[in-house]
């Protein structure tokens, strides 16, 4: 059999623990037999990050900016316990954080829907993708505990010495005070990523804030989205037959619950934090969730939404066969291959990505599953298999 050809390599970011094992199994069992795979390999495993003083993470992000598409394995974010376990020189920062900051990107998360694993919200027929703005707001706030009657003011000082002052509140008694910020630059990057992604997947884009109450702060988000939509995306959206829809956050939540799904929901930082956990648990598990980081210029990095599944890895080290779910990592690969195929005009490769996803969903629907899905899949004759057996069943279907 001739293998499917590639033009431009993917940036391949290897990772840690159980997901590193699964990474190799996915390549060996369902990709390499069919695709003449081209990647530029960066080892983001913790040992190599330590050895290179984390330069490998920076190099991989820079190369992603040049090539346009990356696929990333889950990686350990070190804490005190990992410092001892891996004898680290330094408590290295989260690779995801480093890469996100370098690409200035937004993360889009979307459940993988399978017949038999039904969302708790019965009206949802198609997946809902959440895009969370991961910059500023309450996550970078400044807080003061007020211990008695006081006046609180907001003071802004410009480089030329100009000052602007607003009274926040005349405290009659003790209380609390909070300051938040965001920037036009970050909101613009967020909006660009969202419009690009919605066009890419040809789905409507929803965005919501509380601009009726927050007339300057939240309103700025609304205005930036609308300005970018009107000037750059209106025509493209109309051509693609999709819409941009803005509403208030409470109205959005109510509409999401009544909807069929099948759209992209852009959320401010806090809304995205809360709503993505709701969406994930309402639709199954993190192992059935795709995740992609999209930069404002369209550069994409695909990954799984879960971590390195440490508990399974320790069992693997003891020689046990584990039944870890490879779906999210597999979909990171298919997402990256499909994106690469679209950029390079490779119909065969795009078709392969579609078929591999279809084969993996059908494998689960036929009742061959990993352990985590046992409690979720509503089917009588189901069989829990190891990760390797599961991937082999997918290859057979493929
Ligand atoms: P985790 O790796 O997501 O795993 C938490 C638990 O969720 C697992 O013990 C397992 O439950 C279940 N689970 C997650 N993925 C699964 C899968 N594919 N198949 C089956 N079950 C799955 O989170 P963690 O244990 O909190 O974190 C482990 C390491 O991952 C940490 O060092 C953290 O820094 C890192 N991390 C990396 C990323 C990333 O790179 N994107 C994200 C999050 C965490 P059971 O044990 O009950 O089976
Ligand atoms: Mg959260």
3D structure, described in words:
The chain has 13 helices and 16 strands. By secondary structure, the chain is of the alpha/beta class. It folds into three domains: 1-111 and 302-398, Isopropylmalate Dehydrogenase; 118-140 and 182-283, Isopropylmalate Dehydrogenase; 142-179, no CATH class. The chain has a ten-stranded mixed sheet with strand order 2-1-3-14-13-4-5-12-10-11, sandwiched between helices. Strand 1, helix 1 (17-31) and strand 2 (39-43) form a beta-alpha-beta unit. Helix 3 runs parallel beside helix 5 (95-103) and helix 11 packs antiparallel against helix 12. It is globular. The two termini are 14 Å apart. The model has no long low-confidence stretch (mean pLDDT 95). Residues 273, 277 line the site of magnesium ion.
Any descriptors?
398 residues, alpha/beta, Isopropylmalate Dehydrogenase, ten-stranded mixed sheet, two-stranded antiparallel sheet, 43% helix, globular, binds NADP nicotinamide-adenine-dinucleotide phosphate, binds magnesium ion
Mean pLDDT rating: 95
Range of helix content: 40-55%
Bound chemical compounds:
NADP nicotinamide-adenine-dinucleotide phosphate, magnesium ion
Q: In the CATH hierarchy, what is the architecture of the largest domain at level 2? A: 3-Layer(aba) Sandwich
Order of strands, widest sheet: 2-1-3-14-13-4-5-12-10-11
Count structural domains: 3
Total of helices: 13
Principal-axes geometry comes out as globular
Which structural category fits the helices and strands? alpha/beta
